[in-house]
Write a structure and sequence with these properties.
Largest sheet: none
Shape: elongated
Radius of gyration: 13 Å
Distance between the termini: 25 Å
Number of domains: 1
């Protein structure tokens, strides 16, 4: 039987996976609206996942990747 700590850890892992998926889709040119629809989210939630910098500029790729990895740790 899973305890609260296991559930919390699994929830955090699923959130991290979802963030990576959203990031990959946006980096590959999929619109926020399409990502949101595919994942059953609001477009505004997708927009907020990566802050004001967004994921649209290649020059920010390294910084965004660092942010994702930092939040996963």
């Amino acid at each position: 039987m899973a305890n609260d700590a296991d559930i919390t850890r699994l929830t955090e892992e699923l959130i991290a996976i979802k963030r990576r998926l959203v990031y990959a889709l946006l980096e590959n040119g999929v619109s926020q609206e399409a990502v949101a629809a595919a994942l059953g989210m609001n477009q505004s939630s997708v927009s907020r996942m990566f802050g004001k910098g967004g994921v649209t500029k290649r020059s920010s790729r390294g910084r965004q990747k660092e942010k994702i990895e930092a939040t996963d740790a």
